[in-house]
């Protein structure tokens, strides 16, 4: 636990560079908006909340602007394949920046829900705490980012992610076969409507619908099924679920704990959905910064960590096995 006695809680009037802040534990909620968090967090957490400004409107932009150095004292527990220890994604390899990366998404991907569940992140975090005494920790949850794990409706999540360069989470699991002419037409029309924004910031979503194709992503699937009201309710439920799991993890921690987000989310405001980089939208850039101070931990991570320890290094056979079971997804706006 680091000593921050006498330090002032920074007022977040400009972009918040997380590695310049003071914390022992940094808990990242993926795609978490400030306004939803402000309304829900008091049910689960107690601390000092302020509004931060993210350095990016999407995970890659936030990641690249946040982690430009080497942080040997930091352990990253990652459910998001954008930050991993063994494959460079869009030019970034997590093991070159952090003392250790726990790739929770590799073995912890829930193929039924199409994501990494927050309780899976908690189990990995408890192991990481037990194995890395005296370190600082970044614990990255995928929620409230889609897919929406609390939904009753049958909406497919993401397929198992690919870790190849420039390939990321996108699309929905078990994409139906699409004729080549539709794929070509979609690509052409998408370029046209990005230049002539008559269909808003997500032309691919509407074009796929007009062409009789399946939804572009789990978020798009919910929008189609229930409209903006259903989408916002599903997002709120995802946030509630992850906040409950964050509260479950807190007893293992002592020191300064910060709960924040990489970026926010559009939920239909002005016809905009999802998130993207290079933005000035407050829905994407305004994120929570909740500071929780704890003098001691109530639970011993070492006593409760699973006997099945994650491996720090993946062999060539591991890499081949992972690559074989992952699909080439590409990026869909």
Can you describe what's shown?
This protein is an alpha/beta fold. It has helices spanning 34-40, 59-66, 104-108, 118-131, 180-195, 203-210, 218-249, 282-285, 301-304, 316-325; strands at 25-30, 48-53, 71-78, 98-103, 136-144, 255-261, 266-267, 273-274, 286-294. Residues 4-12, 307-314 and 320-333 have low confidence and may be disordered.
What would you call the shape? globular
Helix content: 25-40%
The tally of beta strands, per DSSP, is: 9
Total of DSSP H or I helical runs spanning 4+ residues: 10
Multimeric state: single chain
| Mean pLDDT score | 86
Encode the helix/strand succession as letters: EHEHEEHHEHHHEEEHEHH
Sequence stretches where pLDDT stays below 50 over 5 or more residues: 4-12, 307-314, 320-333
Content of β-strand? 15-25%
Radius of gyration: 20 Å
SS-derived structural category? alpha/beta
Strand order of the largest sheet: 2-9-6-1-5-3-4
Largest sheet: 7 strands, mixed
**What is the end-to-end distance?**
41 Å
């Amino acid at each position: 636990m680091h000593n921050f006695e006498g330090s002032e809680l920074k007022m977040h009037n400009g972009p918040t560079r997380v590695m310049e802040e003071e914390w022992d534990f940094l808990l990242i909620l993926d795609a978490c908006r400030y306004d939803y968090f402000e309304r829900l967090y008091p049910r689960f957490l107690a601390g000092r909340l302020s509004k931060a400004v993210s350095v990016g409107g999407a995970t890659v932009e936030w990641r690249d602007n946040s982690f430009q150095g080497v942080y040997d004292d930091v352990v990253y527990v990652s459910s998001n394949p954008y930050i991993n220890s063994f494959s460079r994604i869009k030019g970034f390899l997590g093991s070159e920046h952090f003392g250790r990366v726990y790739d929770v998404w590799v073995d912890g991907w829930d193929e039924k829900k199409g994501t990494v569940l927050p309780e899976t992140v908690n189990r990995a975090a408890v192991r990481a705490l037990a194995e890395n005494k005296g370190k600082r920790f970044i614990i990255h949850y995928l929620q409230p980012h889609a897919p929406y794990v609390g939904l009753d409706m049958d909406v497919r999540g993401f397929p198992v992610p690919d870790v190849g360069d420039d390939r990321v989470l996108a699309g929905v699991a078990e994409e139906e076969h699409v004729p080549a002419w539709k794929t070509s037409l979609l690509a052409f029309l998408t370029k046209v409507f990005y230049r002539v924004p008559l269909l808003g910031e997500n032309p691919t979503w509407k074009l796929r619908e007009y062409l009789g194709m399946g939804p572009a992503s789990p978020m798009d699937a919910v929008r189609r099924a229930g409209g903006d009201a259903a989408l916002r309710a599903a997002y709120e439920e995802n946030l509630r679920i992850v906040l409950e799991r964050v509260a479950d993890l807190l007893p293992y921690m002592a020191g300064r704990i910060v709960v924040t987000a990489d970026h926010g989310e559009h939920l239909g405001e002005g016809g905009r959905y999802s998130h993207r980089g290079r933005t000035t939208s407050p829905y994407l850039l305004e994120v929570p910064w909740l500071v929780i101070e704890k003098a001691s931990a109530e639970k011993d991570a070492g006593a409760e960590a699973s006997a099945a320890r994650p491996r720090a290094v993946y062999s060539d056979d591991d890499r081949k096995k992972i690559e074989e079971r992952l699909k080439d997804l590409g990026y869909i706006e």
